[in-house]
Design brief:
Mean pLDDT: 84
Strand content: 5-15%
Number of domains: 3
Shape: elongated
CATH architecture of the largest domain: 2-Layer Sandwich
Number of helices: 22
Low-confidence stretches: 1-26, 430-457
CATH topology of the largest domain: Beta Polymerase, domain 2
Radius of gyration: 26 Å
Helix content: 40-55%
Strand order of the largest sheet: 1-8-7-2-3-6-5-4
Number of strands: 10
Oligomer: single chain
CATH class of the largest domain: Alpha Beta
Structural class: alpha+beta
Length: 457
């Protein structure tokens, strides 16, 4: 039954003894992966088990996409995806912990312990695919051949198929050659591919920055004239892609590439604001540099903190005129924050939990100015103190007029009980207090129990 199913998928009858991918090899360059320098031991146990189970059931199964690309570059992949000729319902039968997700593009999530493998079925090239008025494909669950699947992937370096069981790598579009040359090249006609999915233009910027690759001329040429197509992408999908870009470990380079390719202006209010002023741009560059440094050090990154940093120059621009007009600082700050977030909502579906984090981080900046009485000690116990404190350090690091306030809080956080008593009697602006050596035996605050704060995203 399985062989008949495979025959229907591939459009030919399978023969006894045939491996499901035998015919494919006539259309692809075949390499021994280990001879290309790919370390098969670096393939996750979960990905290997997934491929083995599918192949033992008579299906083809390959690790595909960014995982293969990163292995060839000697990098550690963040995750592994598997592509197969088995339709989703057959994949579900083979794995106890598996479920289908997605509507426009169905995939199967297969769990092995804590590891998650995304398994997708080879997609067909659809000449008559259902699209919207701008050419974006709306339905994409027609199964096809591996050759079709390779042609539908975005870039040549992402269209490499690794069989980790047999140490083989299949390359349909000279991805190995482009990988060695450091070239990012889209598969097929660039304008057509961008029309099918405008988000690919953002992916060009992200991958070029992440890999340090040169964008091939034909891949770059249509972007400027087609950038407006991003306006028709659902806001939730744009938000997901933006988060990937900002947490790629190369956020600063990615934003600079977006600017160089003309993708920053008029598309996302958030990106417009990054380059609105010299001081705002300096602040954003510092925030993104800190973020990239944390990811390089394998530290966690808070999307709420990062988004708060990206929108802070716009919040300041909306808040300062209100204060100058005589409004109370805190209500006017919250009103400015709401106005900025509302402006983003038309293009970015910022999740409510991130928006709540952003508002708290912003409002804490005013509370840091209360440096007398019991306010500082109470603030240390605030659940978002650490994020707000890191944000204050970032503001000072980027050159905002809060260096004395930042120094005071650093001394207060790091100081002992007697140091804090002295600091409460000497608020910021009356010298630059320094913490004395800690004395033992005092009770540690919640923030200290978590470790010393760091300027971070």
């Amino acid at each position: 039954m399985i062989r008949k199913l495979i025959g229907r998928i591939f459009g030919r009858k399978s023969k006894p003894g045939d491996h499901p991918d035998t015919w494919v090899k006539r259309h692809a360059e075949v390499f021994r992966a280990s001879e290309l320098g790919l370390d098969l031991q670096a393939v996750s146990h979960a990905a290997m088990r997934t491929c083995e189970s599918l192949q033992q059931a008579g299906f083809a199964a390959y690790v595909v996409g960014g995982g293969v690309r990163d292995l060839l570059l000697g990098r550690r992949p963040k995750d592994f995806d598997v592509a197969t000729n088995a339709p989703p319902e057959e994949v579900l039968k083979l794995f106890r912990r598996a479920r289908v997700i997605g509507r426009r593009f169905q995939i199967v999530h297969v769990h092995h312990g804590r590891d998650l493998i995304e398994v997708s079925t080879f997609r067909a090239i659809q000449a008559d695919a259902q699209t919207d008025a701008h050419g974006r494909v709306l339905a994409d669950n027609v199964w096809g051949t591996q050759e079709d699947d390779a042609a539908r992937r975005d870039f040549t370096v992402n269209a490499l198929y690794l069989d980790p069981v047999r140490d083989q790598l299949l390359d349909y579009h000279h991805g190995v050659r482009d990988l060695k040359a450091g070239i990012l090249r889209i598969i097929g006609d660039a304008a057509t591919r961008y029309r099918e999915d405008p988000v690919r233009m953002l992916r060009v910027a992200r991958f070029a920055a992440k890999l340090g690759f040169r964008i091939e001329d034909g891949t770059r040429a249509p972007i400027t004239g087609m950038a407006d197509l991003l306006r028709h992408v659902p806001s939730a999908r744009l938000f997901d892609e933006l988060l990937k870009l900002l947490t790629s470990g190369h956020a600063l380079a990615s934003i600079q590439t977006l600017r160089a390719e003309g993708l920053h202006h008029g598309l996302l209010p958030l990106l417009d604001g990054i380059f609105a002023s010299e001081s705002g741009e300096r602040f954003i560059q510092q925030a993104l540099s800190n973020t990239d440094a944390r990811i390089a050090a394998e530290k966690s990154v808070s999307p709420g903190f990062l988004l708060a940093a990206l929108l802070w120059p716009q919040v300041l621009a909306a808040w300062q005129p209100r204060v100058a007009a005589g409004e109370h600082p805190m209500p006017s700050l919250l009103a400015a924050a709401d106005a900025v977030l509302d402006q983003q909502s038309d293009r970015l579906a910022v999740q409510k939990r991130f928006a709540a984090d952003m508002r708290e981080i912003w409002s804490l900046q005013l509370r840091f100015e209360r440096c007398t009485g019991g306010a500082p000690l109470r603030l240390l116990e605030h659940p978002r103190f650490r994020a707000g404190y890191d944000f204050l350090l970032l503001r000072a690091q980027a050159g905002e007029d809060c260096a004395a306030l930042s120094a005071w809080w650093q001394s207060f956080v790091e100081g002992g009980d007697s140091d804090r008593t002295d600091l409460l009697a000497q608020p910021p602006g009356k010298g630059a207090p320094r913490a004395r050596k800690r004395r033992g035996g005092r009770r540690r605050s919640r923030s200290e129990a978590q470790g010393p704060p760091q300027p971070s995203a």
